[in-house]
Amino acid sequence: MLSREDNELLCRVGRGTPMGELMRQYWVPAALSSELPEREGAPLRVRLLGEDLIAFRTTSGAVGLVRNSCPHRGASLFYGRNEAEGLRCVYHGWKFDVTGRCVDMPNEPEESNFKQKVRAVAYPCVERAGLVWAYLGPRETPPPLPELEPTLLADSTIQIYQRECNWMQALEGDIDTCHTVFLHLGSVSADEARPGTWARYSLADRAPLYAVSDMDFGVMYGAYRPAEAGTNYWRIANFLFPFYAMVPTGVLGLEIRVRAWVPMDDQHTLAITIARGPQGTRNAGRQVVNPPRTLPNTTDWYGRFRCVANAANDYQIDRKAQKTISYTGIDAIFLQDQAVTESMGPIYDRTNERLGSSDAMVIRTRKRLIDAAKALRESGKVPPGVDDPSVYAVRSGGVVLPRDADWIEATRELRRAGVTHPGLSRDVLGGMPAV
């Protein structure tokens, strides 16, 4: 159970808050590159870490990210004219480049040097893996981008959805392996999975044991349960500073994926999954697992990547299906997670929790984040991974190990990014989703 003070520290990401300042030490995914398809095209509203920002692509193709309010009289730069390497406020014609420098001030005398004294708040941006990354931190020279494996590959894909709750309760769903065999597979019995498959191991023992370890990138855990004689089936996954998760599904050594839980503000989060490999619809015996459908994007602050099924329509729950073929009656794994995490409220009061042994990873991850935020606030200690992008070059997934194996040492090579393992196959999973 967290104290009220630590719960506030963990959840609040606005400028000046301990967690907000920690996140501003890192590059943050802000938008899809495809949201700015044209040079001198329409600007884009971006809500990021509690700030209202405007993104635009210049004549040369560079991306700028500036504060919404013009520094002159506060008019929104969303209505600005994107022209000739800058964004011009339509109120009085002041124009700003991607660095925030005022390059034209047509309502002042030509001989005036006032424009040299005015700057818009602007944040550096780079593009990688189909994403626009922004640095909102204090350094004049930003740190390097994290070496997350799928962001370094040309054939990775991106899925992105908005979740209407605090970033931390959303992320905690990804580092909670126990819920899989209930929320996602609760209506499937062990007898429906082929003997000798990892799905069979998972469904035959829905209360695994846990091991947790602090790592250079954050926290790693393993949930283990019996497999064949003398072996255990392990599901190994990661939390990576400041808001990344690598889930334990699939085969360790084959899975190349990461999910960023990017806070738009304290009560809205973007789930950005970057992955290489199988995505989309999968058959699971009696169930078909589909990706959620999304509404068309609009131009308002919260108009991007919203799911069709949401709290307003009870996530389109099918009560008949819940009695027959589905534990939840909600037809997409992501939506099942969304329903339970949003149902906690915009920011869950963790002083009401009663945590058990299955929450070991959640407990440790919270502690790492809180300790790092306090260390930054109190002594200026740089948080993990900021200056060492190589610590992010890791993988997650499942593996079968001898019962007496050291799980960290035995999986060291399988957890390394950039390594090919020709002998591995996903056939061992048994065709079930979330395994």
How would you describe the overall organization of this protein?
With 435 residues, the protein is an alpha+beta fold. It has two domains: 27-135, Rieske [2Fe-2S] iron-sulphur domain (Rieske Iron-sulfur Protein, 3-layer Sandwich), CATH 2.102.10; 149-429, Naphthalene 1,2-dioxygenase Alpha Subunit, Chain A, domain 1 (Alpha-Beta Complex), CATH 3.90.380. Helices cover 17% and strands 25% of the residues. A hairpin with a 2-residue loop joins strand 5 (81-83) and strand 6 (86-88). The chain is elongated, with a radius of gyration of 23 Å. The protein starts with a helix and ends in a 25-residue tail after the last helix.
Principal-axis shape equals elongated
Task: Compute the separation of the termini in Å.
Answer: 29 Å
Mean pLDDT: 95
Helix/strand class:
alpha+beta
Total beta strand runs = 20
CATH topology of the largest domain: Naphthalene 1,2-dioxygenase Alpha Subunit, Chain A, domain 1
Please report the first level of CATH classification, the CATH class of the largest domain. Alpha Beta
Give helix % range.
10-25%
| Overall radius of gyration | 23 Å
What ranges have pLDDT less than 50 throughout 5 or more consecutive residues? 280-286
